[in-house]
Amino acid sequence: MKLIDDYFINSIKFAFEARHLAGEVPVNCLRRLSDALADDEGKLAWEVQGGRDDEGKPYLLVEVSGELHLRCQRCLAALDFALSVRSHLQLVAPGQDWPDESLEDDRSDPIEALEEQPLLALLEDEVLLALPIAPRHEICALPGYAEDSVAASPFAALAQLKKH
Ligand SMILES: [Zn+2]
Question: The whole model's pTM is what?
């Protein structure tokens, strides 16, 4: 199944009926990712499974995988990133109490259940959460290569001055 921008699911119904959808989405459809990418080539495989947990609470299991070309924050060149997301999302119906954070299950994240949940946005959210905060090539992450750690040290700034 090709994923189009305006594909919606009724998330609670989807969970209660234990529905399943899978397909591929071109990376260039995930527009909120564009800032993090060196290029938007390729596509990601995705899968959504609805169900109910032991307590009967509805959830969506969202999986997205594939290769992304992130932009290295140091050298700005492409950095291959093997994406593999598997998120268990507990659906919280409108008006229902939001799960207490202290009681929250680490393996499950609560999201608001929508009657018209845009599927693309749901996948995009999970991909964004799975991206490294500051992607860097291994070599670019070495001490001495990292610009901001140099800038953060007053001694490094002095050393710079002495050179001139
Ligand atoms: Zn780099």
Answer: 0.81
In a domain, 131, yes or no: yes
Q: Is 160 a domain residue? A: no
Could you tell me if residue 45 is inside a domain? yes
Q: Pick the closest to residue 68 from 132, 7, 22 (CA basis).
A: 132
- Position 42 in a domain: yes
Which helix (DSSP H) or strand (DSSP E) does residue 53 occupy?
none
What total of structural domains would you count in the chain? 1
Q: Report CA(81)–ligand 1 centroid distance (Å).
A: 13
Q: Give phi and psi for 59, each to the nearest 5.
A: -145, 165
Which pLDDT tens digit goes with each residue over 113-160? 999 999 999 999 999 999 999 999 999 988 875 455 444 455 555 555
How far, in Å, is the centroid of ligand 1 from the Cα of 74?
5
Residues in the chain: 164
56 Cα to the center of ligand 1, angstroms: 47
Domain boundaries, position 112: 8-136
